[in-house]
Each structure stands twice: as C-alpha cells, then as structure tokens.
Amino acid sequence: MKTNRRRFLGQSSAVLLGTLPSLVSRAVVADDRALTDHDGKILVVIQMSGGNDGINTIVPYADEGYAKHRKKLRLPTDRLLKIDDSIGFHPSMRSAADLLEQGKLGIVQGVGYPNPSRSHDTSMAIWHSARVGGEDVLRSHGWLGRTMDAARNQADAPDMILVGDEPQPLAIQSRRSTAVTLSDVTDLRLRVPQSEPSAHSGAATSLTRFVEQTMQNATATANVLERNIEKETDASAKYPSTKLGQRMQTISTMVKSGFQTPIYYAIQDGYDTHAAQLPSHSRLLREFSDATKAFLDDVEASGLSDRVCVMGFSEFGRRVAENNSEGTDHGTAGPVFLAGSQVRSGLIGPTPKLTDLVDGDLRMTTDFRNVYQEVERDWLGCKQGLQTPESASSLMLFDV
C-alpha cells in the first residue's frame, strides 16, 4: 500500500504556508540531500489526556489491595497479559505486550511528583513545564521547548511539531525554538497563485517579493517531499483507523521522508473515566498500543528504528478505590511508557503497593523529572540539566 501522498502533502502545505514567515524561513528544504539526512534522535510524545487509570493499565493482580479496592472494575486474572507472576497488561494491550516481548517497551512505574494536584490544568502544566513547588508553571516555558532552546541544532525544519488540531501544549512552547501545528486536514491542497508583476514600489514591493519567494520555496519543498514519499512503500505498515493511528502514520511519513524535526507531539483524549470506565478505557488502551506498535513497525521496516523513541504519559493516575459510577476519580501516580529499539525494556522502578496508600492514593515511587532528565540527556543528547530531586537515582532508560 502506497503512502497517502495527497493527504500528507495537504498537511505539509498547512505547515509550510500557514505559519509565514517564521516556519518557512527555517523549514524549507531545497534539495533531496537534506531530506535524506537521517542523523539525530527523534522523540515522539503521546499525551494520554484526562488521567489514565494506571492500575487497570499495568495491573498488579497479585496485590491483595487490587481485589479489595476494585470490585466492579477488577479485571479477571485469566484475561490479563502477564508480565510476571504479579503484574499484567490490560487485555486490550496485546500490541504493547508484543513490544515488550520484542524488547522494545519500558514501563516506568509509579511516576508522579511531590504534593500532587488533582486539577487537570495544574497537573498538566506541571508535567509540561517540569516545574513543581511554588513556581508559576502557567507562566513557564515547556520542558521540551527549553530543551530545544538549549540544543539549538539549526536544522532546516521546525524543532517541534504538534500533529493534530488541538492548541499547542505548554510542553513545546519556548523562547527561541520553532513549534508548529500540523492539522489533520485531509482536503487541503497546495495552491500557488500565479504571480503578476507588481506596479508598486518600496516596502510593498519588498513584501510582495518575499511572499512570492516564500510560496516558491514552499512549493519546492512539497515537490521534494513528494519525490521522497513516492520512494517509500508501506506494505508492512498497518495503522489502525483511529485518530491516534492516523496521526502516528503522519509522523512516520515525515520521519521517513527525511524531515529533520527532532520532536513530534500527539494528543489522545478521553482518559477522564469517572463513569462506565471499563469499555472506554479498553478502547483507549487498544488505540494507544496498536498505534504505537504500528508506528514502530513502520520505522523499523524503513531502517530508522534506532533513531526513534515514543513516550506516553498522562497528567495523573486515578484513585485506587473505584467510585459508585463504575469509574475512578482523579488520583496521583501512574505509569510512563517508553517504546523503541533502544529503550531498556521491562518494568522499571518499584511497583506501588495498593496496601500502602497516601490519603487513598498510590505512593509515588519515581519523580517524573527523573524520567525527563534521562530522556533529555541520554536520548536527545542535551545537557541542559532539568532540576531533579537530590535523592533521584539513575533509571537507565536507554541501552545507548
């Protein structure tokens, strides 16, 4: 099956033409050489918005607290995809279990931050900014934005791309780096107006020439991308027909085409499961697992697997005890996923105990800033040095 070139080029034009002039001046690539430069690591972040119930994601089925606190939401042990003799995947996460068996999935357990907030906005801002305590996180720049500011790779592409139609998250906002949104618009086409000689002079003429040159550059970029995409075949890529699946396929297309952006970001909504959790949570976890595995299979088939890492996170977990609506309320700690051929595979960090709670919530065992620091330093190669607790120990998240 061929890559959907029309769809991708339409989306490319949204990036190239919708952000004049700040993006085009940096993102336009003039030749095939630049588009086939596959050096450098790539981080793909999947934001699992709403607060994922980590207890029913990576299930501590042997913990006596599981049966005690989960009556209607307890998943049958014989349906779980066993990781070891006490922990298993949700039954919908077959693709994630396959990645684990292939040595391509790391599961960091009990991830959170001190004095947790159960507010979606506040907690997400803390995760986005990597700032906790008395700092004004809502006025901060994002942790990925600061990382890109420090790296300053000067690549001929945006530093960060949000694939989707949501507002740009704080995580990719920065002082100097370029972050753009590539909307999922399938019917957009690259239309270049016919240029006509201008009778004006001065500033107006200069502006006209600039716009004309920008359009020509954008067209050249689209043509180069088209030639490169034509070379790519997706016979091994079987993406799910979900919003997240389509977004991961778009990211893969850009990566395989040689787009030199190091950070891609996608958002999967729906994890705020206060009621009737079982069916919606099952669907969400299947979408996440299937899209992640399809993406990694795709880039591996293209020989790029050693360059790509996927990270999945949520702003908080859920309460240990289920509520009266067959759902769960806002909690604290939860798992963070790292997927790729270079990650340290398996369970990472201590498993929170469901019998050792703090005000009914899981006790945090890993500070999220510790995860970020290793992603920044060991994967992205940036020595900016996010602030982490003095007691933080090395998680050794990567095999590189």
UniProtKB/TrEMBL annotation:
Lineage: superkingdom: Bacteria
Name of this protein: DUF1501 domain-containing protein
Residue ranges of coiled coil: none
One of the Pfam families matching this protein, by short name: DUF1501
Keyword line: Signal
Signal peptide start and end residues: 1-30
Lineage, broadest ranks: Bacteria, Pseudomonadati, Planctomycetota, Planctomycetia, Pirellulales
Signal found in the keyword field: yes
Signal in keyword set: yes
